[in-house]
Amino acid sequence: MTSEMPPACPLHGAGLDARSLVGRRIEGVVASWHLYGEDDPEGPLDVWLMDEHGDAVLVTTGSDWCLILEASAPHEGYEMAESGRVTVGPAGDETPLAAHLGEEILAVREEYEPRTGRTALELSFPTGGVRCDSWAGDLRLRPL
Questions:
Q1: CA–CA dist 127, 100 (Å, integer)
Q2: Is residue 11 one of the residues assigned to a domain?
Q3: Would you give the distance in Å from CA 48 to the centre of its chain?
Q4: Cα separation of 29 and 79, whole Å?
Q5: Disulfide-capable partner of 143 in 95, 96, 108, 129 (CB 3.0 to 4.6 Å)?
Q6: Facing residues of 142 across strands?
Q7: Does some domain include residue 5?
Q8: What is the pTM of this model?
């Protein structure tokens, strides 16, 4: 009997095995936001799930619309001249993950597309869940 592996992103590889998130307690969420002029950002570019051990897991999208999951510490914000700037800091209540701070991830579910690999990740917590997906190349976070 052979087990079929889910397709990996040809540009970014398979990334972190989402099953490694099960059992982690989310103690914080850090996000990056693209700010341009006076416009409010529509959503985070990246989010980092910070667990009880201080480990960080990055959830972001790739240029081919895949959903990237990797062990990575938050980076610093940066300026992009006339294209605005990217800020990085605690997400506060600005993502649906805030409702689950202090909770343990009980289960994960992933979705894949044959050409780009992982496209969605659902995180289940004791009080609900959050869906992370790539939508037209943007990271989208929604409560389940």
A1: 7
A2: no
A3: 6
A4: 22
A5: 96
A6: 131
A7: no
A8: 0.92
Residue 3 is predicted with a pLDDT of 46
Query: Is 7 a member of any domain?
Result: no
To which residue do tokens 């780009």 refer? Answer: 116
Domain that holds residue 124: 18-143
* Nearest CA among 58, 54, 74 for reference residue 18: 58
Contacts 24+ apart (CB under 8 A), 118-125: 118/6, 118/9, 118/14, 118/15, 118/18, 118/66, 118/67, 118/68, 118/69, 119/65, 119/66, 119/67, 120/67, 121/18, 121/59, 121/67, 121/69, 123/21, 125/26, 125/100
What is the rounded CA–CA span in Å between residue 36 and residue 56?
27
Domain count, the chain: 1
Q: What is the DSSP string of 94-124?
A: SSGGGGGTTPBP-EEEEEEETTTEEEEEEEE
Q: What string of pLDDT tens digits covers the 144 residues of the chain?
A: 444 667 888 888 889 999 999 999 999 999 999 998 877 777 899 999 999 999 999 999 998 889 999 999 999 999 999 989 999 999 989 999 999 999 999 999 999 998 889 999 999 999 999 999 998 889 999 999
Task: Please check whether residue 1 lies inside any domain of the structure.
Answer: no
